[in-house]
Design brief:
three-stranded antiparallel β-sheet, 59% helix
Length: 175
C-alpha cells in the first residue's frame, strides 16, 4: 500500500521487489524506483546552485540588491534599511537560487528599479491610467506604454533606445 507517495517493500518479499524493479510495465511512468545516487546528485546540484547564488548575493552592491528585491517585495523595499535588504537578499538567494541568478543577470531589473525610484522621487510621473510617462518638472511626455505591458518594463526597454539613454543619464543624475 502507498503511504505519503511511497511504497515500501520489506526485504523478505524479494519476489515483489523483483516484479516492481524489473518487470512491471508501469515502472518509469507511474512510479520510480528509489535511487540514493540520483537523489545525492540532485541534492548536490541544488546545493551548488545555492552556494553560487549566496556568493553572488554576498558580493552584490546595495543598488542591485534593491533592484532584485523590488521584483520580489515591491515598494516595501523603499522603507527598508541596507541591513534588512542584505538579509532579505541572502534569504531570497538561499530559498530560490535559480530565480535569483536569473534576476541578477537581467539588465532590465536594474533599469526597472531606476524607473520606479524616479517615479517615487517625482522625477517622472506615470499617468493614472498607466499609459504615459511624463517629466515630473514640466509635464512633457516621455513615452507611451504599449498596450498590455507592464509600464516599468516598457520604460526600462525605452531607456535602452538612443533617445532613452539621454533620459536615463538625466534621471540618474537627479537620483
Amino acid at each position: 500500500m502507498f503511504k505519503d507517495g511511497d511504497l515500501k517493500v520489506p526485504k523478505e518479499k524479494q519476489n515483489l521487489q523483483k516484479l516492481l524493479s524489473l518487470y512491471h510495465p508501469l515502472k518509469g511512468r507511474l512510479y520510480e524506483e528509489f535511487s540514493a545516487v540520483e537523489e545525492a546528485a540532485d541534492d548536490l546540484d541544488i546545493l551548488d546552485l545555492q552556494i553560487d547564488a549566496l556568493n553572488a548575493a554576498r558580493n552584490m552592491d546595495i543598488d542591485q540588491a534593491e533592484a532584485i528585491l523590488r521584483v520580489e517585495l515591491g515598494s516595501k523595499v523603499s522603507s527598508m534599511s541596507s541591513k534588512e535588504i542584505k538579509r532579505d537578499l541572502l534569504l531570497f538567494a538561499r530559498n530560490n537560487p535559480q530565480l535569483f541568478i536569473s534576476l541578477a543577470n537581467d539588465d532590465n531589473v536594474q533599469l526597472r528599479n531606476v524607473a520606479i525610484r524616479a517615479a517615487e522621487a517625482g522625477i517622472i510621473n506615470l499617468s493614472p491610467d498607466q499609459r504615459t510617462f511624463t517629466w515630473g518638472s514640466n509635464g512633457r511626455k516621455l513615452m507611451n506604454v504599449p498596450f498590455d505591458e507592464n509600464p516599468y518594463s516598457a520604460f526600462a526597454a525605452f531607456l535602452k533606445t538612443d533617445e532613452g539613454v539621454e533620459i536615463y543619464k538625466s534621471i540618474d543624475k537627479k537620483l
